[in-house]
């Protein structure tokens, strides 16, 4: 998935860092934004509700840099240290283990601790796991054999720990430490219990195995990636000779891995495989046990991604049947809102079948379907289900697409109510037996806070983290918060935007404008939420006399299926036209210098920037494209084909809107930036665009970052990158 533009929030989790004293300086600089600690957020790392619903636990930095695990009473705020981090010393080690993440055993007397994590692609999904016994204080490694462990999980009865190592699945007996290998064919091409690059990136799948409810067997994905071609790039900086880096990466129209679902007994034996049909091109997009130790739910998605089938499979025989199907003329979204309720007799499902993403109650056999939520807005996710009261809690982009609020509705579809009221973005966590929810809240220009609130009426019980020092620092800058606006295009489409004006804005003065764009399918940049370092950089430009504007074009999210899917089969055409109309709308404002309108974006936003700069008659004087896709045939199968089908089926759609095809149209100033180690949007994109621009005789500016990935970060890289962009904007806009 291309980098999505999101508010810099993860529900309840922020980097825990000490805050520097409030600086007297009231201006922003790149150094202050990226190298100081002025804007570092506090948080409650690895926050999770405990079983009783009255307490939550989280990681807290203790003395001498060790990490403790503490519990806090939700009602009173009383803290108890559950794990003294100084006691987390593994056999044969001197230094305590750092708690990066953890899982409770069912009785909450043992803790599965994750530490020493390492990246696989861009996420740290491999590391080392230990079991900690709260009664004895004993620390035991999950495995003593060489190699990293991935996705370790305690069995439902707490007697075993399963994990993945080197693409095979293992189980360790907690009492004896005996380790059993359950699959035996893992290799570079055969992947058991985890995923290849494209499944992880585009279907959001990393952990590829599940315990059965009785702990007797494991269901898992098996991918045969031998059909996927390797993409290669070079590391030129670490030695006298270049080192080749290879990654199995299926580009649009090329073969994918063949996926299967296997079941293996924990006692050992040959895995059995589920019948998911004879089409090797399908995606097995989701899999869970179906509220039964003998039946599995699978979401099967065709390669065009316009048909999603919910299947039930017998784990003992492998026989399967389709019970529910969701279709769309363009594409369907993989369903992350699937929940079993009523003891497995029904399930919850989200669909855009009425034009907006809403929730449905479906009987286990798929025959009865009842719509639970309604409105001209999209549900974002299911937050919790309280079956005792028959209440479903969910997040939604309502009352407007810029905001996200917590709602509830009865499981019979009545009594829909909004719970959170304060304008902005709310991300809630609800425990099943608790009258409270943990809410991470922010708004445009206001840093996030974490609050405890009542589920009954949303009233704030107390604030857990207020980030007051950061908020005061932001307030000391004396800046204007973003203003929201809308306008209509020539064909009558309403587009919504936000703008940041200089603090000393004068209506009679002419200002240069820099537009920030992402624009990809289902994304948003126009949000009533804290925007992190990108927002601060935009405020820095406003302090220097620029107006910074963002507009969500057709194709973006939170405005229903028709708005989002208007770009189907022609990525870049409609979105670019909307951004150009936005620029012309701005040019008509009396305070805008129409000769000084620029645009910048990253990833899909880089594609959009290049497309806008290369459009005939482009109104943009200057543009910065960071890590852009320049030809969709160079990007991966799952993402690209969802919106474009294959290059073989849609050659004109790929060719006509590719920046590399239109480079000769460049008229303004153009800065191209990319990391050579980008495993997502390959540096190959920029190489081909450079070649096309040179062939067309076009002058442009260019910066590469050796071995940096799609995020172009590490060390002082961010500071260097944003200093470059600041200077370039100043000189060219």
Automatic annotation (TrEMBL):
Q: Which residues form the Dipeptidylpeptidase IV N-terminal domain?
A: 105-448
Q: Name one GO biological process term.
A: proteolysis
Keyword list (alphabetical) reads:
Glycoprotein, Hydrolase, Protease, Signal
In the record, which residues are listed under signal peptide? 1-24
Residues forming the Peptidase S9 prolyl oligopeptidase catalytic domain are 539-733
- The name this protein carries in UniProt is Dipeptidyl peptidase IV
In terms of superkingdom, the source organism counts as Bacteria
A GO molecular function annotation here is:
dipeptidyl-peptidase activity
**Classification via Pfam families:** DPPIV_N, Peptidase_S9
